[in-house]
Specification:
The protein contains 15 helices and 24 strands. By secondary structure, the protein is α/β, with parallel strands linked by helices. The model has no long low-confidence stretch (mean pLDDT 96). It binds ligand EPZ.
Amino acid sequence: MDKLVIEGGQPLNGIVPISGAKNAALPILIATLLAPGEHIIENVPALVDISFTLSLLGRIGCPSLVAGGRVKLDTSRIAFCEAPYDVVRKMRASVLVLGPLLARCGEARVSLPGGCAIGVRPVDQHLKGLEALGCEFKLENGYINGRVDRLIGAEIHLDVPTVTGTENILMAAVLAEGITRIHNAACEPEIVDLARFLSSMGARIKGAGTSVLEIDGVPALRPARIPHRILPDRIEAGTYLVAGALTGGRLTISGAPVPELGAVLSALTDAGCDLEIDGDSVTITRSGPLKPVSVSTEPHPGFPTDMQAQWMSLMSLAEGECDVAENIFENRFMHVPELCRLGADIATNNNVARISGVTALNGATVMATDLRASACLVLAGLAAGGQTEILRLYHLDRGYERLVEKLRAVGACLTRVPDDARVPVGTLSEQRAVS
Ligand code: EPZ
């Protein structure tokens, strides 16, 4: 296994290109199951979760070719309507094959995703919506066994605006007979991108991005005539903006989904950062001290839960106290003890973390526990004095394409080495000075 070694304290200056959104690419690649034939998807990020998804589609009988962000998928035939435990346990979003397999084949056998580091992650709403469309499920031996003769449109009221739940139901409803309305649907930009892709294959969808999705089912879909381009990743964009705010340089993110970043840009402005927006580029600088800004995670367009850990890193160095409330997941503070190892002063009480800003963070060895926690530790390491080592990097590889390369290009001193390697303190900054 590898670790990341960072020598902090360098201001970041330059341009970071933003990659395609992981959480849009996953459902869109899976949605190709709905239309037999050859599909081309562009701007797909090179991430472990993408590889897992393509490997699962391969096991279902749909081979793919990947070249520089362009994925060619052949979904002409389906050999197995199954997502086995050994795949789903590695990536719970594999549950997204449920809707498309039921719509295409009338059956599906998907391992129950189980929980993960940040919470129980139930799928009851996925099943509730699909049952409303006529599907029948039996849960046995850790698997969801589903079947359906005919998908019939229905009025569906979700108890929570679940992102992948909305996506699963949407991907079945597009091939149901009649009208389906999904009430209390998730409004995330990734839903909008999925709806855009489904429409390019002939689906009839209204209300994407609002809490009521209306789908007029069609008998069949066909591959889009032109390649679909995955929208930019708003969470990656927000993560790099926080890196710029923390290190005090002049950092620009390019190819960013600016309209989808509202809550994060507003919080950064309140924290004392200056933002220059020019089309899909955002440049962040900071002249004065960081101000404490409390945030409370909400479904889109509120402050995203996937930015909560990164925000905590920033607020660790603010002048004063603030609160971070996590309202989406029940256990998404695993990064707090690791941040405290770097010198942060954070106390948690149920779903609220009280952060008392400190004047400096100090390098230490820390452990990533989940994807966004690992990003928060990278950010803290970039700001901390001395050397920080981050273990269990596989979490980071799930969601951040070419992170080391992108950060090095704007002046960060970091390297990826085997867990047992030793990098003498000062080596990285000396190398940078020479290069
Ligand atoms: C998606 O997860 C994202 N993953 C997550 O990103 C993101 O944090 C989350 O949405 C919230 O925005 C992908 O899109 C692949 P939810 P998802 O269903 O769909 C409860 C990352 O870091 N719930 O919207 O699994 C659930 O327990 C990942 O990129 C039910 O109760 O999240 C949670 O409290 C992490 N029953 C809340 O809803 C259900 O059937 C929101 O979960 C489904 C969900």
